[in-house]
Amino acid sequence: MVDGIADRIGENGSSIKHTLLSAESKDQTTVIKEPLPDHQSGLSKIADLLFDKELGILKSSSEILAVGHRVVHGGEKFSSPVVVDKGVLEDLYKISHLAPLHNPANLKGIEVASQVFPDAKQIAVFDTAFHQTMPDYVFHYAIPETYYKDDGLRVYGFHGTSHQFVSKAAANYCDIPTEKFNAISIHLGNGCSMSAIKGGKSIDTTMGLTPLGGLIMGTRSGDIDPSLILLLGKNHNMTFDEVDTLLNKESGLKGLTGSNDFRDVISKYEKKDAAAILAVEMYVYRIRKYIGAYAVVLGHLDAIIFTAGVGENSALIREKVCEGLEIIHTELDNEKNKNKAPGIKELQSLKSKVKILVVPTNEELEIAEQVSGLLIA
Ligand code: ADP
C-alpha cells in the first residue's frame, strides 16, 4: 500500500520519503525534510503518515497485526523468525557484542515500534538465519575451540534475507523445486557478499563473524591477512578502535579510490583513472575467485544470480565477472547483459549450461512473507 524510508536519523538533512502505491495514487512520492534526532522520532513520523486521515492508509494502529524487523545478528540461537518477547529481547542484548554497529539500533527499533504499535506482535527476522545451515567444517575458525564455545566466535554470514529471497525467486523462475536448486548468489550493494546455495540452503558465504569479511565493499576491506591488524597496531600505533574504523569505514572502494559509491568509481574507471581501474580489477577478481571456489563445492550449478544496487545495474561488472567462466559451463550473452528492463532477467548465451540471472532483491517483501508465515503457523 505504501513504501518509505526515514533517512539520516540523527544527522543533518534528515527526511522521510513516502510513496503511495495504490492504483489510484499512481506512485506518488513525497519527501518531507524535517529533523529526526532519533529512531523514536523517525518511526513516530512514519506512524503519523500511516494514520493521516487525508492519506487514508490506516484508521488505527490496531490494523497492524505485526511489525517485521530486520535484525542483523541472531547468533546461533535464532535460525528462523521469532516473536520478540522479554526473553528474546534479553537474548538479543546478550549477542549485541557480535554486531555492535547494527544490533543495538535494531533493538531500539523494536522498542520504539512496540510503543507506536502496542497491539502488534514484534517479529525479528535475522540476516544471519539463512546461513545457519552451513556445515561445521565451514563455520568454524581454526582457532582454539574455547573461543567458539565461550564467545560464539565463528562464521555467521549476513545478507541472508536477500540471498534467501533471490534464490527462491530464481528457483521459481527456473521452474526447479527450491530443494533441488543449486546457485551462487552474488549480492553487490554497499555491502557485498556471496552465498553458495545447495538444494535451496546456504552451505557457505563470504562474510564471516561480522560483515567485514569476504568481498571488497563500499567502505569495507573484505578478506585480509589478520596479521595486517597487528602490524597496523605495532607500526602505526593504532588502537583496536582505530583499526576497526579503518577496515569498516575507510577501506574498500573508498580506501582505494576516495569514493564508496560505485557509480563514481565507474565514471572514474571510464576516464581511465588508474586507482579506479585497479579497484574495479580487485573487486571483480575477488568475486571470480569465490565463484570458482563455490562452483567446486556445489558440484552442480543451476544459476549464478546477481542482485542489489551494483549487481542489478552494472552491466560492466557483470561482464567482467563472467569473463572466462566457460570452465564452469557458463557464458554471458553480452547483448542480453545490456538489457535494462525491470524484473528478473536471463543473461546467458545459448551455449551456456548455467543460467546467469539478475534478480532484484526485495528484503522488505521477504521479511513480510516470513512474518506472515509465522503468524499463520
Ligand atoms: P545497500 O547495500 O545499502 O542496500 P544498494 O543495494 O542500494 O545498497 O546498492 C548501492 C550501490 O549500488 C552503490 O554503490 C551504488 O553506487 C550502486 N549502484 C546503484 N545504481 C547503480 C548503477 N546504475 N550502476 C552502477 N552502480 C550502481
List keywords for this structure.
377 residues; alpha/beta; six-stranded mixed beta sheet; 15 helices; globular; binds adenosine-5'-diphosphate
How are the elements arranged and paired?
Blueprint: E1 2-7, E2 15-20, E3 28-33, H1 39-50, E4 66-71, E5 82-83, H2 86-94, H3 103-116, E6 121-126, H4 136-139, H5 146-151, H6 160-174, E7 183-188, E8 192-198, E9 201-205, H7 227-236, H8 240-249, H9 252-257, H10 262-270, H11 274-298, E10 303-307, H12 308-313, H13 315-321, H14 334-337, E11 345-346, E12 355-358, H15 363-376
Parallel strand pairs: 4-6, 7-10, 10-12
Antiparallel strand pairs: 1-2, 2-3, 5-6, 7-8, 8-9, 11-12
Helix pairs in contact: 1-3, 6-15, 10-11
Count of runs of 4 or more consecutive helical residues: 15
**What's the CATH first level of the domain at 176-363?**
Alpha Beta
In round numbers, the mean pLDDT is 94
Question: What's the helix-strand series?
Answer: EEEHEEHHEHHHEEEHHHHHEHHHEEH
Distance between the termini: 24 Å
**In CATH terms, what is the fold-level topology of the domain at 176-363?**
Nucleotidyltransferase, domain 5
CATH architecture classification of the domain at 176-363? 2-Layer Sandwich
Q: State which percent range the strand residues make up.
A: 15-25%
Runs with pLDDT <50, length 5+?
none
In total, how many beta strands?
12
Tell me the overall shape: globular
Q: For this structure, what is the CATH homologous superfamily of the domain at 176-363?
A: ATPase, nucleotide binding domain
Give a quick precis of the structure:
The protein has 377 residues and is of the alpha/beta class.
